[in-house]
Write a structure and sequence with these properties.
- The protein has about 375 residues and is an alpha/beta fold.
- The protein is about 35% helix and about 20% strand.
- It has two domains: about 5-275, Acetylglutamate kinase-like (Carbamate kinase, 3-Layer(aba) Sandwich), CATH 3.40.1160; about 285-375, Roll (Archaeosine Trna-guanine Transglycosylase, Chain: A, domain 4).
Length: about 375
């Protein structure tokens, strides 16, 4: 059974494993933790567990909680140092809160702090996969957050929407539920008259992206609708459904799933695990620009040959993940390069018969082999 509607997220057969993301503005209000609301949400999570579903929580809130304790300006987001300090203090309170409330339902909370590098590096990604799987097998409820106390601007997700999608991928989840401060994706800014809620989206296109508002309404979080659409792209490529629903009201999961209020992004046909990981990468080391002939070859399932490369951007080494863009600047694929950037610069636009003389050694069959490439 596959997920076809919002209500399927509450069905064990369609969704045996669910990731629920809770944003800072939902968990922390002006007067501190919204405890009564959170107790209701935990009751819903416990009910899902009672139905036989595995649940993983991706919870923001450590920076907001820590900033209040340390009395930092701008909610702890005035500087990277403030955010790191606030997260170090707030994460203790956040994990303790989840452990306490889940414990009241006889559930064991497990804390897992991740950085972007943990899920972008293949070996560390597999380690995270193994840890999540073992925790779920043991009956625990993993509570995941970005490790903001050590993450820097260069190596961070920056929002827990995309983190939730990557965690879902690593855990082999069937769906992600992003609890937000709006009902879902509207065809324009929901504050505008006549804005309509999209109940279902099949593929995140340029037109869908154009509907998004990149800001965070509360000013407390770091994500907006743009980050949620990026999360949906990661999820759909891995064969995972993703829903956006309003979390500000009591019992938000029941409202969304029973009443069908929200936006459901349906998954594409599932890509192999390694290619889904590659396609969902957020940090790429460089870019290869290609001509129309090379673009057509990739679309037919071919490898990327040097003759079709028109330009190289960035500094990367063999084995690094890179973007591949067409003549219009559209990213058409991610892949692992068989050459470093300097070698690619030597080879670009040249035929395979010339490669040995240019490199001084026997060349490889392609710059990016089709087995190490995923179309977007």
């Amino acid at each position: 059974m596959t997920i076809a509607r919002l209500s399927d997220l509450a069905e064990k057969t369609a969704c045996p494993r669910l990731v629920v993301k809770v944003g800072s503005s939902l968990l922390v209000g002006k007067d501190g933790v919204r405890r009564a609301w959170l107790e209701g949400l935990v009751a819903e999570i416990a009910a899902a567990r009672g139905r036989g579903q595995d649940v993983i929580i991706v919870s923001s809130g450590s920076i907001a909680l820590g900033a209040a304790t340390l009395k930092l300006e701008k909610g702890g987001r005035g500087s990277l140092a403030d955010a790191q300090a606030a997260a170090a203090v707030g994460q203790i309170a956040l994990s303790g809160l989840w452990a306490e409330l889940l414990g009241k339902h006889g559930l064991t909370a497990a804390q897992l702090l991740l950085t972007l590098e943990d899920l972008e590096d293949r070996r560390r990604y597999l380690n995270a996969t193994a840890t999540l799987g073992r925790l779920l097998d043991a009956g625990a409820v993993p509570v995941v957050n970005e490790n903001d106390s050590v993450a820097t601007q260069e190596i961070r997700f920056g929002d827990n929407d995309r983190l939730a999608a990557r965690v879902a991928q690593a855990a082999g989840a069937n769906a992600v539920l992003l609890l937000s401060d709006v009902d879902g994706l509207f065809d324009r800014n929901p504050a505008e008259a006549g804005a309509s809620l999209l109940q279902e989206v099949r593929g995140v296109t340029a037109e869908i992206h154009a509907m998004a508002d990149g800001g965070s309404a509360s000013g407390m979080g770091s994500g907006g609708m743009t980050s949620k659409l990026q999360a949906a792209e990661i999820a759909e490529r891995a064969g995972i459904a993703l829903a956006i629903a309003n979390g500000t009201l009591d019992a938000p999961i029941a409202r969304a799933l029973q009443q069908g209020v929200g936006t459901l992004f349906l998954p594409r046909q599932k890509t192999g695990a390694r290619k889904a990981w590659l396609g969902g990468r957020l940090r790429l080391k460089g870019t290869l620009l290609i001509d129309d002939g090379a673009t057509r070859a990739l679309e037919r399932g071919g490898s990327l040959l040097a003759a079709g490369i028109t330009a190289i951007e960035g500094m990367f080494h063999r084995g690094d993940a890179i973007a591949i863009r067409d003549g219009a600047g559209r990213t058409v694929a991610h892949g692992l390069s068989e050459y470093d950037a300097a070698e690619c610069a030597l080879l670009k636009g040249r035929q395979s018969s010339e490669h040995a003389a240019l490199l001084g050694y026997a060349p490889r069959s392609a710059v990016v082999h089709r087995d190490q490439l995923v179309l977007l």
